[in-house]
Specification:
Elements: E1 6-12, H1 17-31, E2 38-44, H2 51-61, E3 67-72, E4 74-78, E5 84-88, E6 93-99, E7 103-110, H3 122-129, E8 138-143, H4 150-160, E9 166-170, E10 182-184, E11 187-189, E12 193-200, E13 203-209, E14 212-214, E15 219-225, E16 228-232, H5 237-246, H6 250-256, E17 260-265, E18 278-286, E19 293-295, E20 304-310, H7 312-329, E21 338-344, H8 348-352, H9 357-365, E22 371-376, E23 379-383, E24 386-390, E25 394-400
Parallel strand pairs: 2-3, 8-9, 21-22
Antiparallel strand pairs: 1-6, 2-6, 3-10, 4-5, 4-22, 7-12, 8-12, 9-23, 10-11, 13-25, 14-20, 15-16, 15-20, 16-19, 17-18, 17-20, 18-19, 21-25, 23-24
Helix pairs in contact: 1-2, 3-4, 7-9
GO cellular component, one term: plasma membrane
Protein name: FIST C-domain domain-containing protein
Membrane topology: Multi-pass membrane protein
């Protein structure tokens, strides 16, 4: 029998870190019939005071050449009973191990000051990461706060590795200003980005569920300045928006008061836009006098956009739509062996009113493959061929062999 890709995950809720580490190591290693090439560890911020002990404890019991991870306001994994759980604001540790034959696995840590100039050549980024662009690598990225330079890093990686999939999230603490931890090959960091590049016999696919549904119709930006929309279809944006809101049902009008977003179309050539074609961004403010609208990204004249609403129902429908589409597209491909989930702290039980919603919906479509992950301060995933930092999103990275 050929050497096959294997993946295992375990989630422990033991309140003692020693016991939790022993638990996840024993369960993941006993699930694999070959040595692990990659480990991914996510630890709940309930263990904040013990972050420095995580890697030494793991090293005592686990031999894995590449190990990366971070802290989260919640963690995701497989319980002792075999159920996928999303544990928020309580002690928990999630460990994924992967046996990856024919895959080159390279870990790295970069800080904002090391990032090359975005106007420079792609080779500067390739030198920084230490991974060639062929065969095309795929990336799992875990970053600190916005000062980590994550947006520039994503832009640079897209530039240097255009065919690569990049998924991940920002480490979180569960409380404003709380301490975070990034783990990379025996070292603990509190700034920058840790990542792993996977090249060779591996496919990494992404599902980016932004949790919104479009309302009205697409409009075209006819005038804009940086992140300010000055004209939509040659009209003041605020007047366009008022007319749109007036046409909504009473329920949607109420929702629009605090759950209204803008979706920027990422493919300028696609005529029929649908869910997944938009990059969702916040509305930051309006100018009642001039009718302009400021949003959380740059706009350019000619770009199409559509207003969106977000609530629990829209989030559930959005994820189900994307999972159904993925299942249809992948039915003739080799089966997925493992996955990672990067969910916004604003989702989970706070959004749905019950725990484990996104992860259990995912498992319904992907036949109970091992799933690990954490609740992020921002989620990393592709939309329309480019990689972005998102909010209120669940990003799934799904691994399989090339086939």
């Amino acid at each position: 029998m050929a050497d096959q890709m294997q993946w295992a995950n375990a989630l422990s809720t033991r309140p003692s870190l020693e016991a939790a580490v022993a638990d996840v190591v024993q369960r993941t290693t006993s699930s694999l019939s070959a040595p692990a090439d990659l480990g991914l560890v996510f630890i709940s911020s309930a263990f904040t005071s013990e972050y420095s002990r995580v890697l030494p404890l793991l090293a005592e019991q686990l031999a894995v050449p590449v190990l990366v991870g971070c802290s989260g306001g919640g963690v995701i994994g497989t319980s002792l009973a075999g159920q996928t759980q999303e544990l928020e604001a309580e002690p928990a540790l999630s460990l994924s191990l992967a046996h990856l034959p024919g895959v080159d696995v390279k870990a790295f840590h970069v800080v904002a000051e090391q990032l090359p100039d975005l106007d420079g050549p792609p080779s500067a980024w390739i030198d920084l990461i230490g991974v060639t662009s062929s065969p095309t690598p795929h990336f799992i990225l875990l970053s600190a706060s916005f000062s980590s330079g994550i947006n520039d890093l994503l832009q640079g990686l897209d530039y240097a590795y255009p065919g690569s999939i990049k998924v991940g999230g920002q480490a979180s603490s569960g409380v404003m200003g709380g301490r975070i931890a990034l783990f990379c090959n025996g070292r603990l960091y509190e700034e920058g980005t840790v990542g792993v590049a996977l090249s060779g016999n591996i496919v990494l696919e992404a599902i980016v569920a932004q949790g919104c549904r479009p309302i009205g119709q697409p409009y075209q930006v006819t005038r804009g300045d940086r992140n300010i929309i000055l004209e939509l279809d040659e009209q003041a944006p605020l007047f366009v928006l008022r007319d749109l809101i007036a046409s909504l049902s009473e329920e949607d009008r109420t929702l629009a008061q605090n759950s209204l977003f803008v979706g920027l179309a990422m493919d300028e050539f696609k005529s029929c836009l649908q869910q997944g074609d938009f990059l969702i961004r916040d509305i930051l403010g309006v100018d009642p006098a001039g009718g302009a609208i400021a949003i959380g990204d740059y706009v350019r004249p000619g770009q199409r956009l559509q207003f969106h609403l977000r609530d629990a129902e829209a989030s559930a429908e959005d994820l189900e739509f994307l999972l159904e589409r993925y299942q249809k597209e992948q039915q003739f491909q080799p089966a997925a062996v493992g996955a990672l989930m990067f969910a916004c702290l604003g989702r989970g039980a706070g959004l749905y009113g019950k725990p484990n919603f996104d992860s259990q919906l995912f498992q319904r479509y992907l036949n109970n493959i091992p799933l690990g992950g954490f609740f992020c301060g921002g989620e990393i995933g592709p939309v329309g061929g480019s990689t972005f930092l998102h909010g209120y999103t669940s990003v799934f990275g799904i691994c399989r062999a090339v086939g």
